[in-house]
Structure to design on (1408 residues):
């Protein structure tokens, strides 16, 4: 018998093992749900899977009488638009400031303390201020995402710019590069894949802020719907929505990972499979 | 007129004297090899030649002008590591110098300019024997191939001086031998002036025309940072003379201390 | 502010989800507001804000010209912040829409010593104070826990929750739960919790068309409600996240002033002034009129039947003239 | 004249340069505030610094008539207690699961997919379930922090456990170590400083969830106060509170960094100064 | 009875045949040095001896028993890197083996047991000349000192076999020489059986009593992974014979191809 640390599951077994805890959770849910519903058939907290499925199917297919739209898709589209624009703006700002402040010591001295302080402010605390400053339109929601995510991206990219070996900056200069050319041809291309990576890490936070923002001021969106029906404790809508958000987050994450591997093979050369 | 000259050159970091009392003059075409204990200031010296470290006292002149205070295309460099750009292919790495020169704004050339750059790069890549690996990224190359690439890249600007900081330190002995042949050939063909730091005395003798040994001449046990290293031996090496003899002579002199230090 | 006092032809008003304000949802999507605005040569943007407090903040900070809010919030937020506000429309009063729910008891007096979840310093708080008064208790006899209104239903399911004060639709959802006993509702204090459309006084003075257009649109929808128009009610129900039946239940607990004459009568009655005095006193005791407020009458409140408080600092006005003009035009 | 990328500010100059953007922001604020207050002296949106200072002083010194406590300290203490307990529990769970799943391939196969999915679920969206499971008191707030932070810690530690050179695990076994001893003497000590580091990264998220939790149901706490007074647009309280939270976050972060450097000098050997 | 024996031993990764047709037997006390082109399977072979890679076909026996399928205290190992624990001091690293042995639960000993462990560790540390650095962490040591530490640590369990995978590959030539002296002394004093992979032929000759050259004997250009490497030369090295002569003999044979491959 091998030591425990040396035991590795086979490839097929790994899949099955991975499914195991999900099955256990599902069983736990169903038994709890049954128990509550047996006590009070009108209980809304833990609806049956069948109930959730039919509600979700309805949301995903039936046109809304008032707006003429299909609720799920309208919500999804609105939320995705916000998160893509918000994260896109953050990534852009993060890349520019990260490169410039990572590459130019004189600017870094100016910006670093500000970025550090900004990244420490919990955006949730300034949520009330944000909506007052930006109104309740799309701008405020996107601004919340940008404010929540950008300081992290800037710090991450600045850190990586600083960690680029000095040797490369010197080499570029011995090849005749100007400051601008060093930023453009050494820092920019090497930080772009890192940006994709950092963006993946920041996506979780971005979803959080999106949902928080939609809870306060929105007329459609995944977070809006959850907070609207929360007043009625409609868990048959909330739970499928949570699952749907989780799936979207996962797909977005995988999309970015795939793009990065495709576009920057050299960046991923040192990686093993990270489980 | 000598290419490079130093007079009472010193380098301090705060109170820490790293180098002191350096005096030399180097003619074009010399191949200077630098040896010395770890931490004695060889890399610091090379950085002063590069322009990334300022001189603290004395003078260091290139063509009788104070040496520029930042790196420039007249002084090529190859480090032990990180000399090539991981995000560019072999061809891209070597073309870089040409592209930076011909396109100030984008640092990237297109069309005819690009074709010319490729052609020039091809020639350089052939010289170092990487013509089979044109489209490979550095991570796909072995350590030796990466250093060849770094050399090809550095020579693209036709620098007057080539600065090498333990360029073959991380390579296997067999591959090392191969690189010696290459660097020797390039030095002769292109009439470069080369400064090479090495930890391998044999290498230093095989390649150089002049050997500098860096060491401290004064030492204060109470304040180990009070005195810096200087060039304690400045020996011409003749290609014809067997290096073994020289080595022995050196060991009779003061190099033992140095070697001992190197071996801890 | 001077900027708002200028003549303009573009305005915005906001509202949040509440039974008595759902007519704005209908008026917005069905183009009723646009129709009336066109008639007066202006345009009005009707904005839904998901979070009630945020919608009032929008009004106070000047981002919008009007906002749906209760009488107490109009006094303690915009008026106390120095924004001269006019209650343009009094749409309804809560007639059971606010309630106190206890677990394991149907006697209000048993609230003594419990932790009570509610939105602190909102009308719920005022309502709770009135309820406590009715059984001879004071706020010192209980403990209040500030709770976000959207989460109060989920919270009630938890075993540790003992009592909540909330409004519809949350109140209905909680009342339906087996352990929920509604022990006191706003039906016991009719006419005290008023839901209104409040607009900036200076803006209104410079642009009376805004007032006329809003009033016109409002009472056009009121006619539909009076007629129990199923299609209109369904649309409101959907916007509120419920169905027709659920929305009707909420309306049952809301006394809608579908008849403009009745609304005018309320505004002119001396009882309104009494109510506002009580509200002002409650607000002062809880520090809602500002830390520096010397007494309850620091903010002047003007109704057709008189002024309560500082006459040189009138910041909240009840103005029936626009409703009157609508009635006259009919 | 040197190239821009080679220009570095002097040590003293760096401080001054870092202050510059803060000064600019402060000036911008004061001029905006003056402009608004000139229009409406009762305006609460941008209070004067003097006003904020006096309010803050009041909160920090005056006893509350009803509770007999000093508001600021009661809030601070309540919030710090929650965040320390929450993060502490997360760190503990993260360390255990991280080590076990990083070190034992057979367990990793079971847990990895679950942790990945769990880390994608926005905790804010499943609040009602949290209330049921943890009640509405302190437990729920701490649970929200734990749920928000733990998946990140687990993934980070698992990743680092995987990145430990195989050579070390093999070496330990050639020295006679059992599986348990490998976990205890190779993985645990090497992951502990990493845990401190990951905890520092996670603190930002923890503050976020703390404030969110306090916004939902609380009787005291920094987030509670902000969400309570936002009703009245009392920026004279909100803004100093945000600054105070930022300061606390900074101090907590520095404390962890200091402890880590002191306790694990070998871990920090490879670090330069990270600007 | 030989210590280690292989019969028609093979190792595949899927369809990729890495090693094939290995047959040998090794007696206690031998010092086997392994050379071969990069990627030919030397490390894979060592891993099979360690037990971290399973054998695919044939047999590999230790004391006539199938080799254990995981690492154990009878086979010590030193890698090129990461052999020592960064979180332990020199003393802690060397004590580790003893502590693991005496405290099954905590893997840490206290009181008298601890004092004994320290004493034993002291002796080992003295042997490799690190007695001045007892309380230093690995990051405070030079590369050479780290490898000495790794050796001292590996020898603490008194293993019967010591497996070395390019242990001196990253060291400077001077320090390397020093390590040769050390390993040679330990081998003789403790009567170890040593397997050492190296890229340096000179090292292989200087240290070993037996040299194995790994190379492919068959090659299919269409399917480069179809055939694996095997031991193409198995040469006894006599300490008395000058290695130069041997080297030449080897080069006359087939090692040229190998050397060429190594040099790309
Ligand atoms: N930026 C710096 N600030 C302060 N001291 C420095 C700095 N750079 C180098 N030193 C010190 O200067 C001395 C010389 O360092 P240098 O890197 O030049 O040595 P070296 O001869 O190249 O050593 P090695 O053979 O290990 O490469 C060392 O003691 C080092 O600590
Ligand atoms: N886990 C693995 N899965 C698949 N192939 C592997 C695995 N490990 C090693 N290989 C392959 O086996 C071959 C031999 O690798 P190995 O590391 O043993 O070579 P080596 O002789 O030690 O080379 P080097 O001199 O570079 O250390 C290589 O082609 C490698 O790609
Ligand atoms: Mg150096
Ligand atoms: Mg190998």
């Amino acid at each position: 018998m091998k030591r425990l640390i040396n035991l590795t599951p086979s490839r097929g077994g790994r899949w099955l093992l991975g499914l195991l805890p999900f099955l256990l959770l599902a069983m736990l849910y169903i038994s709890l749900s049954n128990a509550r519903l047996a006590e009070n058939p009108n209980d809304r907290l833990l609806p049956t899977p069948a109930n959730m499925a039919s509600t979700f199917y309805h949301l995903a297919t039936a046109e809304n009488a008032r707006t003429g739209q299909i609720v799920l898709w309208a919500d999804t589209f609105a939320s995705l638009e916000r998160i893509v624009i918000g994260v896109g703006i953050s990534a852009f700002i993060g890349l520019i400031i990260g490169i410039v402040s990572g590459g130019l010591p004189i600017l870094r001295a100016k910006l670093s303390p500000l970025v550090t302080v900004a990244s420490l402010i919990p955006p949730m605390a300034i949520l009330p201020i944000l909506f007052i400053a930006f109104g309740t339109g799309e701008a405020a929601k996107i601004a919340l995402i940008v404010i929540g995510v950008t300081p992290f991206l800037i710090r991450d990219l600045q850190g990586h710019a600083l960690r680029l070996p000095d040797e490369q900056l010197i080499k570029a200069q011995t090849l005749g590069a100007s400051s601008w050319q060093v930023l453009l041809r050494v820092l920019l291309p090497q930080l772009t894949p890192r940006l994709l990576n950092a963006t993946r890490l920041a996506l979780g936070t971005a979803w959080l802020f999106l949902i928080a923002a939609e809870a306060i001021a929105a007329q459609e969106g995944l977070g809006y719907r959850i907070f609207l029906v929360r007043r009625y404790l409609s868990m048959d809508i909330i739970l499928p929505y949570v699952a749907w958000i989780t799936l979207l987050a996962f797909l977005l994450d995988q999309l970015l990972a795939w793009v990065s591997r495709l576009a920057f093979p050299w960046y991923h050369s040192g990686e093993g499979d990270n489980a | 007129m000598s290419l490079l000259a130093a007079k009472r050159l010193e380098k301090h970091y705060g109170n820490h004297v790293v180098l002191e009392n350096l005096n030399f003059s180097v003619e074009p075409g010399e191949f200077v090899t630098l040896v010395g204990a770890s931490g004695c200031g060889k890399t610091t010296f090379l950085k002063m030649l590069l322009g990334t470290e300022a001189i603290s006292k004395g003078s260091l002149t290139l063509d009788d002008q104070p040496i520029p205070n930042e790196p420039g295309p007249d002084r090529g460099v190859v480090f032990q590591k990180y000399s090539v750009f991981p995000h560019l292919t072999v061809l891209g790495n070597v073309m870089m110098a040409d592209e930076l020169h011909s396109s100030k704004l984008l640092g990237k050339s297109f069309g005819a300019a690009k074709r010319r750059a490729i052609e020039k790069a091809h020639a350089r890549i052939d010289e170092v024997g990487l013509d089979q690996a044109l489209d490979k990224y550095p991570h796909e190359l072995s350590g030796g191939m990466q250093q060849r690439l770094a050399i090809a890249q550095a020579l693209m600007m036709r620098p007057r001086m080539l600065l090498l900081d333990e360029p073959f330190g991380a390579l296997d002995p067999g591959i090392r031998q191969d690189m010696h042949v290459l660097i020797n050939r390039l030095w002769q063909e292109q009439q470069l002036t080369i400064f090479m730091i090495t930890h391998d005395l044999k290498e230093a003798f095989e390649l150089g025309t002049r050997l500098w040994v860096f060491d401290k001449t004064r030492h204060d046990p109470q304040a180990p940072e009070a005195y810096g290293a200087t060039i304690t031996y400045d020996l011409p090496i003749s290609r014809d003379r067997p290096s073994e003899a020289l080595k022995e002579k050196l060991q009779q002199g003061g190099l033992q201390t140095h070697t001992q230090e190197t071996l801890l | 502010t001077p900027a708002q006092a200028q003549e303009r032809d573009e305005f915005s008003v906001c509202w949040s989800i509440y039974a008595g304000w759902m007519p704005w949802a209908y008026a917005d999507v069905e183009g009723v507001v646009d129709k009336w605005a066109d008639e007066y040569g202006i345009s009005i943007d009707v904005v839904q804000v998901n979070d009630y407090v945020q919608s009032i903040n929008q009004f106070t900070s000047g981002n919008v010209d009007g906002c749906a809010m209760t009488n107490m919030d109009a006094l303690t937020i915009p008026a106390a912040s120095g924004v001269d506000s006019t209650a343009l429309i009094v749409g309804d009063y809560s007639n059971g829409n606010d309630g106190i729910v206890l677990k394991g008891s149907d006697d209000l007096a048993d609230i003594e010593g419990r932790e009570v979840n509610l939105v602190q310093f909102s009308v719920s708080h005022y309502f709770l104070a009135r309820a406590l008064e009715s059984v001879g208790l004071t706020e010192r006899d209980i403990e209040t826990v500030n709770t976000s209104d959207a989460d109060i239903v989920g919270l009630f399911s938890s075993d540790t929750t003992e009592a909540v004060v909330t409004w519809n639709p949350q109140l209905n959802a909680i009342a339906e739960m087996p352990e929920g006993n509604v022990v006191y509702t706003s039906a016991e204090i009719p006419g005290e919790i008023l839901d209104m459309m409040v607009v900036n006084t200076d803006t209104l003075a410079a642009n009376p068309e805004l007032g006329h257009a809003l009033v016109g649109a409002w009472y056009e929808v009121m006619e539909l409600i009076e007629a129990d128009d199923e299609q209109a009610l369904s649309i409101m129900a959907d916007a509120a996240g419920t169905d027709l039946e659920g929305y009707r239940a909420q309306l049952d607990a809301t006394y809608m002033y579908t008849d403009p004459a009745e609304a005018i009568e309320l505004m002119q009655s001396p009882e309104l002034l009494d109510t506002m005095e009580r509200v002002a006193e409650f607000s002062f005791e809880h520090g809602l009129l500002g830390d520096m407020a010397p007494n309850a009458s620091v903010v002047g409140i003007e109704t057709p039947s008189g002024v309560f408080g500082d006459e040189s600092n009138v910041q909240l006005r009840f103005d029936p003239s626009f409703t009157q003009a609508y009635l006259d035009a009919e």
Notes: Chain E is about 35% helix and 25% strand. The CA atoms of residues 91 and 134 of chain E lie 5 Å apart. Chain E has two domains: 1-74+162-264, 79-158.
